[in-house]
Amino acid sequence: MKSKYEIEVENFRSKFADMKDKRIAIYGIGRRTATLLPGIRDFNIIGLLDRNNDNIGKSVCDVKVIPIDNIDDKADIIIINSDPTNYKIIYKRIANINIPIYYSNGERALPDVEDNSYENNSYWMNSYNELVQKIEEADVVSFDLFDTLIMRRVLSPEDVYRLVARKAENCNICNKMILNDFIAIRSIAASMCNDNPYLVDIYKIIGDKLGIDENDLHNLMNLEIETDIQLCIPRETMLKIYDYAVEKGKDVYIISDMYYPLEVVRKILESCGIHVDDNSHIWISCEKHMDKASGCLWSKFTKEAVRGRKCIHIGDNIQSDVENPKKFGIESYHVMSGKDMLINSSAASLSSYVSTGYDSVCMGNIVSKMFNDPFALGKTKGKVRFDNSDTYGYCVYGPMMMKFLLWLYEKSHKDEINKLLFFARDGYFLEKDYRLVSCILDKQTGNKKQDIQYLPISRRLIYIATIENGEDFKRVVEFPYVGTFKDYMYSRFNIVVNHNSQKYNNILINAVSDADKILTWITPYEDEIKKEIMWERNNYIKYLEKMNLFTNEKYGTVDLGYYGTNQFYLQKLLNRKMKGYCLTACISEKNVYINNIDMDACFQDEKDSDASESHIKKKNMYVETFLTAPYGMIRYIDENMQMVCEPDKKSQYNFDIKEEVNAGVQEYINDYLSVIGADILNDECSMLQDEIFFEFLNGKAMVSDDILKGFYFDNDFIGSQEIEVEI
């Protein structure tokens, strides 16, 4: 069975077979290039390219890093050989070069045609300070309520009805067939009533149409009110402006075209922290029997409340809140709803992926976080930008993590898994976040509580612990590594070299191509290596015994994927089969372990056996640089049962940033499950979460350098180089 490195070489040779005689410059000096070059020596590789000029003159597999200046005179093509996550980022750096550029998957690199028309929206000129100044000049100030002072944590108001129907089904209010019809009838019921109806009038129509008895109808109506109140949150910037108007002694009103009676509106205002002195300053269409949309409410408001004074109305609806007040001499000011901000922003395409009620909650939560402030996109002219780590975690990582954790919860319980092992370091945040999800869902489902454990493991640790013969040892020796022989010996075998290998200690090696050479050079250290291997193996077995892992419980393992290497070797050490749960995985015959392990993956279609079409796989580096731990790669377990790790690097120095990002993830989990709960289990599959993660990290948003400085990729088992993540 071929290794993944051999498969990478084969794919390259196939994709570029007709370019063997061309002068090729390869961009990238990491692991992928180190394992590729030995297999393509018959190609005309004239040099390597890297963004760091300090690497010019260095060599990988005897191929030198050369300056990129005037590269079009030296090479015929450039091939970007990196993690696919970085393809387009690297291309942007060198897009002005006048020779063809390819990605190592064979695809021609071409510039994206970006639509920046969103920048031309005149609304982005509106500002907090401008609105405050207009309020200063007015005597009377009125505010629209929904989508202006407050917003719902769903993308569209109609999606409230879907949530009500699902909750009603769970509460045994009406049967499922009636509730399916309820969603459609509820959406048009208001238009079937007389003008400006109360909610009770709307529900009378629903009851008549669907034959719902009076008691169920009353419970259903109250469930809608409760659900809506739960979904409503204040727009903090607008609440600040509202309070400012009150403090300045302005005569402040709230005006809404709404079917809720005054007492319900009062509850909504109270839940959102909005104080109104008396009921006369709350104008509701159903109470006044007239509305803003037709203009008749403005006529009445002008006569009874404005009374010749200077008035400004603030709202989101262009017709009802902006155009109609002007007809009655009232100045108006437009503030966009969160949904309209999304639709008019750089991330507008995301709205098209919302297909279910749960999608609406997902996107509604994101919109309520990103666009709570109606002036949030002014400085960037509609381009989404993340400056806050918490918000970045909430909006970008939150939906993706939520989808995976819900999938994991449902799958592992169906598989009757008693114990879930979250592999270090990928599982550091996953384990914490899964405990949060389990705590919430166990109470609702009555599922038996799983034993959740975080397991120290790394490729180095498990490879060393499972060496039993010469073949195992050779496998560990030739696993990819680029660095000096001295560094290799310490990284791979915890051996400090001495004069016995002084000729080779500082020589740069590539473990893939130099394996035979290394096997000769390490001869003086054989006894020391054997002793180290046995010591590490015994310590790890004792650690696993301490974790009570040599039992007959049904185990599951959790990590990112992709081949299941750690799962395979842990099974070998424990002498038992386990079920692996991954974000993405190679579940095809290309995987050398596939016949010996059982893996399931969340973010790929069943037909996509190597996850090549998975958006999460395409942005894998952004996942890996987040899902890590506040310490370096785990080298081994010592005699005191303590982890011994690689020294901290930039990823660890700035780990507080990732902690803040995960705080945003946990906030999203709480917000999402507070609305959905266990009802999400067994729901129809949605691609929205995948698209959100992909699009935000694919040019739809900007991320501040203060956030990105917390995201570095490191893997000391294959070399000590750290890679900075870019957007």
Strand-residue proportion: 5-15%
How many strand segments? 26
**C-alpha termini separation:** 37 Å
Secondary-structure-based class equals alpha/beta
Inertia-based shape: elongated
- Main sheet overview: 5 strands, parallel
Mean pLDDT: 92
Flag low-confidence runs: none
Oligomer status:
single chain
> What is the number of domains?
3
Please give the count of helices.
30
Sequence of strands across the biggest β-sheet: 11-10-7-12-13
Helical content class: 40-55%
Using the CA coordinates, give the radius of gyration: 31 Å
Structure overview:
It is a single chain. It contains 30 helices and 26 strands. It is of the alpha/beta class and 727 residues long. It has three domains: 4-103, Rossmann fold (3-Layer(aba) Sandwich), CATH 3.40.50; 132-333, HAD superfamily/HAD-like (Rossmann fold, 3-Layer(aba) Sandwich); 390-476 and 522-687, no CATH class. The strands form nine sheets. A five-stranded parallel β-sheet has the order 11-10-7-12-13, with helices on both faces. It has a five-stranded parallel β-sheet with strand order 16-15-19-20-21, with helices on one face. Strands 2-1-5-6 form a four-stranded parallel β-sheet. A hairpin with a 2-residue loop joins strand 3 and strand 4. Helix 6 (159-170) packs across helix 9, helix 17 packs antiparallel against helix 29 and helix 19 runs parallel beside helix 24 (565-574).
